[in-house]
Amino acid sequence: MTANGYPHLLAPLDLGFTTLKNRVLMGSMHTNLEEVPGGFEKLARFYAARARGGVGMIVTGGISPNSAGVVFHGAARMDDPAEIPHHRLVTDAVHQAGGKICMQILHAGRYAVTPEAVAPSPIRSPISPFSPHELTDAEVEQQIEDYARAAELAREAGYDGVEIMGSEGYLINQFIAPRTNQRSDRWGGSFENRIRFPLEVVSRVRQRVGSDFIIIYRLSMLDLVEGGSDWEEVVTLAKAIETVGATIINTGIGWHEARIPTIASSVPRAAFSGVTAKLRKEIRIPVIACNRINAPEIGEQIISSGQADMISMARPFLADPDFVVKSAEGRSEEINTCIGCNQGCLDHVFEGKLTTCLVNPLACREAESSVEMAKVPRRIAVVGGGPAGMMVAAVAAERGHRVTMFESRTTLGGEFELAARIPGKEEFYETLRYYESRFRKAGVEVCLGQMADREQLLKAGFDDIVVATGVRPWMPPIPGIETAQCLDYLDVLEHGKPVGQRVAIIGAGPVGFDVAEYLTESDEHVHQGKEGFMSEWGIDGSFEVRGGLIEPQPVPAVDRQVYLLEVRDIKVGADLSKTTGWIRREVLKKRNVVMLGGVTFNQVESGRILLEHRGEPQTLQVDTVIVCAGQRSRADLAEQLEGSGVRVHRVGAAREARGMDAKVAFAEAFELARNL
């Protein structure tokens, strides 16, 4: 493996008693494999694939040191030697693949969604239904002992080190911050007392594991909540953590209850590397930067400019396990980039589902989703270049089939490409770049701007025809809608038809939100970058203010009044991503978009809408009505081909529009393609 264009990122890091082969850490993320039957065998394959992909070191998902610290009932913990054989499966697999791996010790504290939750003070978290038990002095001592015991067991299980989770608002962070620590004994009150708990944990762990074992401490450098730490406290704690035995300090940004986005696609790349750079000047041990780093050039810039000694990426290794080896071999254009959507990872974790990845359905399913070369190569036509069509074409060609793709638009991506035009979703273009690279390598013939018809396809003599023609907008049966010259979302996002100053959007699902954001984003705001992002969300760019919070500044927006209207009497935006929907609602609130649920449409006319909002009649005077009320399959071609003698396959929304999104389309198309 050679450094090529990323000499700093791919340089070794000497830790004294051991050396990491490069500066890339696969950061901690829970997969929910930790709790399912046979899950550790699957975890072993999952982590080994990333080790083979060249990552310098891996940190596991959070493992609790005791039953009180689990994030949810039944979550994984390391408090008994009986757990060692399960973890040995993981460590042996990673070491055989040439990697290093650390176990993250995570005690949830008041974030534990169980009645057994404990904390420094009995203050309930806004994201948990349970009020925690206030730890007694003896119980605090027992928690420290449990951390040390977990680290000792981790060493016996073959781990190269542990990461002690001291950020994101978990138990250790709860001891540190005045927000959650209202004790008056030796564990609370003064700052010296409040940091006694993390220092005792790290010190006790170091005593138990010896000097030749990696201890990463995840330090909350920016809490992003009222009553968090100030900068002087962050630095003081970092120096003390270094003194008591930490090998590396990793960056933590934002508590889970913070109302500021930190890892969504709308967050600028490497938005928080400045806080790591500031701390690096204060301590001697290596410091790791994290959050929204998803490309090798970003990592190279961070390391080469002295902002950090390593970078941490978690979800990018869901998207592409070979991220590092592709970077090292000069194949960065072949990286399947994490787009920060959260739909297959964080959303799944919080819904109790197995983690996967929207752009990589193989993630966490390495043992179940093998792809074999086709025994008999076939000629395959793929009609439609959206997510389903792109996945089928790429996988089928890589298996040895001769694939021709037809796409009526002049660009790849279908409605996925339209989504990339929405401010904050620009990362979606990376997926299109990835597929273009994949097609070139696999030899897919791509015919853009061509509407393939039945006669053309049958005349060409294809063995299989995959219909992936996606969806078309649906016009609901509202009186007057057909004659009122309403627009649909394609008219706005694809065709650029003019939109007036007063706009009603019928339909408040994901597409309705996309259109509302698109219509209210100003050119001035688009180009504000990190500084604009921090100003909008009230983040102190100097990192001096306690908790990192300042007064948010008004967002530059276009002079347009938008109404977002939902028929169902529910919270507007209920269909959005579980972990990012709140961000999108907050953005539209800042832009004064009026969001109404429980709307009955009585009449749509040119210039106005007659409606009832929860039984109260209203008239909206509007210039433009945009319909985003749903979609229907474009299945015409598949119906025309039936009975023709050729094998026809429908995939994605061409098979079933209801419940279809890019995540489902990619996954369904992968299954079809590996069996063609």
Automatic annotation (TrEMBL):
| Record keywords | Flavoprotein, FMN, Iron, Iron-sulfur, Metal-binding, Oxidoreductase
Q: Where is the signal peptide?
A: none
InterPro entries of this UniProt entry?
Answer: Aldolase_TIM (IPR013785), FAD/NAD-bd_sf (IPR036188), FAD/NAD-binding_dom (IPR023753), NADH:flavin_oxidoreductase (IPR051793), OxRdtase_FMN_N (IPR001155)
Superkingdom of the organism of origin: Bacteria
Q: Which Pfam families match?
A: Oxidored_FMN (PF00724), Pyr_redox_2 (PF07992)
FAD/NAD(P)-binding domain location, by residue?
Answer: 379-648
Fetch the CDD domains from UniProt: DCR_FMN
Q: Where is the NADH:flavin oxidoreductase/NADH oxidase N-terminal domain?
A: 9-333
Known cofactor(s): FMN; [4Fe-4S] cluster
Protein family according to the UniProt entry: In the N-terminal section; belongs to the NADH:flavin oxidoreductase/NADH oxidase family.
Q: What is this protein called?
A: 2,4-dienoyl-CoA reductase (NADPH2)
Q: What organism does the UniProt record list as the source?
A: Marinobacterium sediminicola
